Structure formats: structure tokens, C-alpha cells
Amino acid sequence: MKTELKSELVTLNVRGMDCANCAMGITKKLTKQGHEQVHVDFATGEASLQMKAGTSVNEVIDSIQDLGYTVVLPETKAAFWNIERKFYFTLPFTIPLFFGHMFFGHDAWINHPLVQLLLCLPVAIIGFLHFGKSAWGSLKSGVPNMDVLIFMGSFSAMVYSVMGMIQHGFGHDAHHYMFFETAATIITLVLLGNLIEHRSVKRTTHAIEELSALQVKEARRVIFTPQGEQTETVAIGDLRTDDVVVVSNGESFPADGILMNDAVTVNEAMLTGESLPAEKTKGDEIIGGSIALNGPVKVKVTRVGNETTLSRIIELVKQAQRDKPQVQQLADRIAAVFVPTVVAFSVTTFLVAYFAFDVSLRNSLLQSIAVLVISCPCAMGLATPTAVMVGIGRAAKKGILIRGGNTLETLAKVRYAVFDKTGTLTTGAFTEVHIDAIESSNEEELAAVLLGAEMQSQHPIAQGIVSVLTKRNITPCGITQVQELAGLGLQVVDNAGNTWNIGSWRLVDEQLRRDTADLYIIKNQQLAGYVELRDELRPGMKAMIDELRKQQVVPVLLSGDRKVKCERIAAELGITEIWSEQLPEDKIQKIDEYKARGTTIMIGDGINDAPALAKADIGISHGTASHVAMQSAQVLLVGSNEMEKLPEALKIGKHTLLTVKQNLFWAFFYNVVAIPIAAVGLLSPMIGALSMAFSDVIVIGNSIRLRTKKLN
Which ranges in 283-357 belong to alpha helices (H)? Predict the structure, then answer.
């Protein structure tokens, strides 16, 4: 029974796609019908689309099934005749056919035409139904797939054999027309290739499977009764915001939430890429899917369902894996015309061999069938998506979330890395408060007044100053009156009756201002000293910048902060291209200038960085950035020391693109070399079917190698 879904954005599971051409056919038909954002992935078996207004899900399902594929609804049982069962069913019939001519004479009973027909018939029925249905659906979609070639090759061999048997009976001459073993072997070997391909492609979606495995099915929810607190086991879908759940030692947190216990050690490795566990204290955020290493603990649920961090990460990885890099466009254009071209070449091969070179009808047909079978474009279709899936998955496991295969390709070509300063290269918190006293004032007095005054404020900068000065064992000055002056800072009166103003440059005349000063201290309307707040570099930033240079990437500092502060940070990191005191519109202009010189990425964390992040070829943000910055970025770095993962992201991009190019080279090289060899009769159809499967294995194997490959 079909299920009506109300949402216009739908994702369907499609069964029966064997290659990229199958996905292209479905995409083409759904796009022609007016649906938008159509993404069909043969590897994951998912088709997602934004439905055309006024269209029902049932109409979309019918459109897909009209092409010969099956849409699997939640209540649909697994198909009995899957690719594995079809292969193992055909294998016992094919083995005696294949080896019969090799080890026995023509007069042996196993080589009798009728026995050959009876052995071939079950294989042919399975093959014709499997490949014929897919081939017909692809022809209807206007994008012929590999199954057209397989069906034509095996069907030709079968029909030729039956016609030969009808014409020559069971006599000795009939053996010259027997291609039953060819038809059966082509079908069985291609099924074997499909089976290997399906199992191998599944390994390329390893990251999604591992992330999905973190999603628990049930949770223990706390309920409050007159007898006290009790727990009940509920399905994860029944959890709601503000529910309280209990998680024991070694269990996964069922949803995002806030820790209610004093402390817990959490393993977030699968979500952030960090091997060391994180220490959480009361009030800290807990990510659903992470594992409690000591418990039991209570968590107040803040996000459930598709809103959880884990669900968003899984969806992000899925979106990225189905996005096509630009390098795939050439392969797609070639694949779209490949099958018709091969069919034409196969027919030409037969006609030229039979009429021009006087090759026998039997051998001319064999050459023609060999061209059909060996030309299968599977390897071309697998070249890009398998590499992208592995690359995206490897990045996700490292805490690098990439939006789209096209982003992955762009990462491989980065020339300039433009950094914001505060919150990106630095922590945004300062570790040093430098006080410069003038004239009759002294630093100890100013430090005591500064600490005493800032202790009266809740401003983040004030709290930072208090934190730093407290560690220096400074005794705060006694304060009797406190007043906040909008845009100016604080005005306080100490126990001795002195009036102090502590605030911005607006407190003093222009000639008394300093570039290095963040705050000014005024005592009884006289300038007493300057305060410089020096923010802290994130750990590992120097090594990260050095690594970028090794990759021939030029680091650039682009900040709204003052020149002297930017120059100090740049000097520590060895950055020579510095742009300070930049407004958001200035940042956009600079990004445009760098983009004109080469592929440019922007790394930022604040709301004011969002326009520049969107303008750059790739915007990169991190897990502690503002929500707006994260939404504007194509790459998100998560986990502790997230900024140190940037060079790794660029390396993964480069090696993924390299893997795609290697795969495409092999796929094109294989076809360019193999088709002429088959056309001149130096390759049998059976060897062609085996080598076709071998080419798929090479491409998939090269992609899977990226999972553990050392990135240099």
C-alpha cells in the first residue's frame, strides 16, 4: 500500500539502480516533470527532490517505477530475488556450459544442443528479466544505461544459438552456431560484477553507516510520581524538549541536552574526530550520540529528531555525497551519449567484419557482442561518486563537515586562505592585561582600581579582566559608587573619594589617544594610564599556518580590529599580508580581489564575517562560531582544536580530486583500449564480461583506498 506524504521535500529509497546512468535517467525524468533539487544516488539508493506544487508523492513514485525501478516504502519487505540470489541461482547452470566445450568433445552429452539450451534457459530468463527491465526503463528515460548493452549482447547470442539449432537441428554442424555458453556466461559474470560493485560501494558509505549507528532507538525518561522519580523506556521518537533522560555508563546519549549532574566524561570521537574524551560539567551541552564514560547521569533534552547535532551531521554528509563536483560533468556528458555510440559501433563492427573483410557470420557476431559487453560504462559512472563518498566520510570522521562534492573539489585548488582574527586565530579571550601608568600614577594602584571597578560589571570584557588580574593576586580597591556611562564605560568612586573613569577612547582628547590602548583610566578628570588587552592565540595556530605554506597556500589576515593588534598577531604567526580595521563591506571587496588572483577560502566565526564567508569560493567556520557564520560556511570544523584541522581538510580535498582523476583515467583508458581490441576479434565476449567487472573493482578499490591512505 502506498503512503501519502504531505511534505513537498521528500526522500525515497529506490531499488534496482545498477549504475550512475540509472540515476541520471531518473533525475532527467523527474526534472522534466518540473521537480526541483532532484538528487538521485545509485550508491545509497536514495532519491530526494523538492516536489512540484500540486504533485503527490504517489505520482513521483509512479514516475520512478514506470522506468523499471522499485520505490521501497517503510513497510516494503526486502526483495527475495536480490542481486546475490540471482547470481547464485545462475552460477550452477553456467559452470557446466562454460567448461563443457573446454574439457569435453562435441559429441559429449553435456554439449548436446538441447542440453545446452536447457542449461542456458534458466540463466537467460533471470538475465533478460533483470537487465531487460532496467534497459527498457533507461530507454524510456532517454538515458540508456549499461544494461542496454548487456541485454543486447546476451540476447543476440541466445537468439543466434536458437536460430542455429532450428536451422541445423542437433547435427554436428549445429555446434558452429551454439553460443549458449556465451549468453549464460555474460549474464552470470555481469551479475557477479554487480554483486561485487554493490558490496564495494556500500563500503564507500561507511561514514553514514557509522554515524547512523550512533542514533539510539530508545531512551530512559524520568517521570515524576507521588512516590518519587521513576524511569520509563520510550522510543526515541517520543522524546520531547525539556524531558529529562538517564544515561548509564557506556551508553549513548539519545538526544542533545544540558548536563544536570556535576560532571561526566564523554567520548565524542565519532562526532568531533577527537580521540581524547571530553570532560563535561553541570550546565554543559551534551551532543546526542556521544557516549557517557561514567554514569549514570541526567540530561535535560534541548533538541530532538532532525534538530539534533547528529541528525544534522548525517544530513550534511548525505547532501555532500550526492553533490557532483565539476570534474564529474565531463563524465556525465560522455556517459549520456556513450551507450548509443557503442551500439552504433557494435553494429558497424558486425557489418564491416562480415561484408568488408569476409569474416564468418559466427565470428562477426562474436566481435559485435564483445564490443557491446566490454564497453559497459560502469567504471565511468563509479569514478567520481565513490571517491567523493569516501573523501566526505573520511573528513566527517576527522571532525570536518563538508557541504558538497563540489566544495571538496574546490578545496583541492585553494591558493589563498583569508583569516579573521578574533575568535578564529585567537580564542577571543585575553590572557594578558598590560597597564601603562603615566606621571604620578603607579601600576599597582591602577591595577587595584581596575579590578575593583570591573568586578562591578557583567560585561564580558570586564569579566575577562577580572579573571586575568585575580590570577595575579591583586587586591581590588574598595568601591563605594558605580555608574555605567553608555558608550563611555564605568565611573566609580573609591573609599578615598577619588572619582575614576574607565572606558573607551571617547574619554580622552584625540592627542592623548594611543593605537595600542583598549581602555583608558581617568583619575579625577586626569589621564592616569592606558590598558592594553592582549588576546590569546589558539593552540597550534603557528603550526597550522606553517603547514598551509607547505601546501603553497598564502595565509592572509583580514580583520576589523586595529592595525597594531593585527600586526602583532600576524608577526607571531608569520603572516605578511594584513588588512586591518575592515568593515564587513570592506571584507567583501578584499575577498573579491583575492578571488581574481586564485581560489580563495575565508575562515571566520562572527556575524560580521558571514558576508565574506558567503562571498569566498569556500567559507569555513567552526563549531563554536555564531549560528549565522556556520550557516554561511561550506565547511564546518568541529571538536576541540578545530582550526588545526584546516590543513587536513585541504589535503583530503586534494587527494579526493586526485583519486577521481585516477578513476576517470582508468575508466576512459580501459574503454579506449578495450573496444578496438574487441572490434578486431581479439577478445571474446566472456573475457569482455570478466574484464568489465574487473574495471569496476579497480575503480572502487582505488576509491576505498582513500579511507586509509596517508595524505602527503
Answer: 309-322, 327-351
pTM: 0.64
Strand order in the sheet with 70-72: 36-41, 46-50, 9-15, 70-72
Collapse the DSSP code of 290 into the 3-class scheme (helix H, G, I; strand E, B; otherwise coil) and give the result: coil
Chain mean position to CA 34: 27
Residue 534: which H helix or E strand, with range?
Answer: strand 526-537
Dihedral, 309, 310, 312, 314 alpha carbons, nearest 10: 160
Q: How many Cα neighbours within 13 Å face the side chain of 85? A: 6
Question: SS3 for 355?
Answer: helix
Residue with cell 583530503: 652
Q: Is 586 a catalytic residue?
A: no
Q: How far is CA 370 from CA 74, 363, 367, 688, 692, in A?
A: 41, 10, 5, 6, 11
Residue 617's identity, in one-letter code, is D
Q: How far apart are CA 521 and CA 505, in angstroms?
A: 10
Q: Which residues pair with 14 in a beta bridge?
A: 71
d(CA 220, CA 244): 9
**Are the beta carbons of 335 and 381 closer than 8 angstroms?**
yes
Tell me the C-alpha distance between 51 and 351, whole Å: 47
**CB-based contacts of 328: which residues, under 8 Å, 6+ apart?**
384, 385, 405, 660
Cell numbers representing residue 590 in the block: 578584499
Over residues 193-202, the pLDDT tens digits come to 677 666 655 6
**For residues 277 and 293, is the Cβ–Cβ distance under 8 A?**
yes
Q: Looking at 172-176, 435-439, 640-644, which range is the least confident one? A: 172-176
The helix (H) or strand (E) run that includes residue 24 is: helix 20-32
Q: Pairing relation of β-strands 285-286 and 400-402? A: unpaired
CA dihedral 301, 302, 305, 308 (to 10 degrees): -120
Query: What is the CB neighbour count within 10 angstroms for residue 457?
Result: 18
Q: Which of 420, 494, 518, 535 is catalytic?
A: 420
